[in-house]
Write a structure and sequence with these properties.
The chain has 425 residues and is mainly α. The chain contains 14 helices and two strands. Helices cover 66% and strands 3% of the residues. Helix 1 packs across helix 2.
Length: 425
Amino acid sequence: MTGVPMADPTLADFGRDPLWITIVKAVMLFLFLAFGVVFGVWYERKLISRMQHRYGPNRAGAFGLLQSVADALKMGLKEDIFPRTVDKVLYLLAPVIMVVPAFLAFSIVPFAPMVDLFGVQTPLQLVDLPVAVLFMPAMGAVSVYGVVLAGWSSRSPYALLGGLRSAAQVVSYEIAMALSFVAVFISAGTLSTSEIVKVQAGTWYAVLLIPSFLIYVVCMFGEAARIPFDLPEGEGELVGGFQTEYSSSLKFALIMMGEYLHTFTASGIAVTLFLGGWRAPLPMSWEWAHTGWWPVLWFFIKFVLTFSFIVWVRASLPRVRYDQLMSLGWKVLIPVNLAWILLVAAVRNVVVNEDNRMIGVVLGAVIAVGAPAIWMRFDTVNQRRKEAKKAEVDAEFERLSDEPAAGGFPVPPLDLPHYHGAWRS
């Protein structure tokens, strides 16, 4: 690990690498994600088992490390079964559509600044764009086509309903997720991931923009279809959801890999946009901690902690109902996000433009006070409406119970003293 100071990369540093360096970085990224999926499954099973006072995988290899390798080999070598009625072309294409965008989405994540890779000074990031952050939700939108096609091509009602659920869920939570990025764009003044990491040299956006960070965390579970938002795969009502007709073969392994890669991408974006990216934790301001290959260590630690949080939520929370999922996305996350964006824009206007200071202060105060007030009023009215509806239903139930001729059950009143006397006699 060299201690030679290197400047933070900019957009001008990308696209200048020799072709073989680009290929090397692409292979390194592919291996990181491929092995990450294999050992991520082992880590998740091991962590959840410890939370539940179990051992977890402990037979194949030391600490069960080879269990996921054995499972991957088993799925790759099992017989590939095709149901009789499936559309074979789309049935085979759907898992590929799920996996490829998940690999591509991680290409915008910076692992470190400029490093010395085989004698070439290059940013440890495959690609960066002026609109790089928008590339991640775009790839997530493409991968949902794989889920929908998997459900439709299976010719199964369970699979089709799972695919439709996934489409509606991704549309709902991608809107809220994209809105949570807007505050970051306004504060950083750029959509480049490397530039956003550079701006967080002082304070992470998880602290400065905590509402955006919290909203993104919720949307992260919805986008990756993880518990408590894994509604496309409800066992109780949809069996296996969109993957019901996929046997435990290579196609099923690709589907599981795609889901895990979306979780990895969501964790990597959270680290990049809100947790300082490859920068060392805030107390560690030494120069050597931000040079050479040390930033890879800080990124990996943050990445593992974020993934551990996702696993912890899975082990702790139950699956929500589908109406609760959609209500949270459309009625809570999106309105709160819009109000927060207006507040951030007003504060940004005050900081950048001194001439509009008073307008910005007034607008920010109005939004800060008005948005919670409107939400509380809306919540109160909604609660009263629910209580009135419940009272109406209870009254109707009592009326039908007392009047058998009106459609209720003809159950006579139970005279307990009479029956007790008859029992004693």
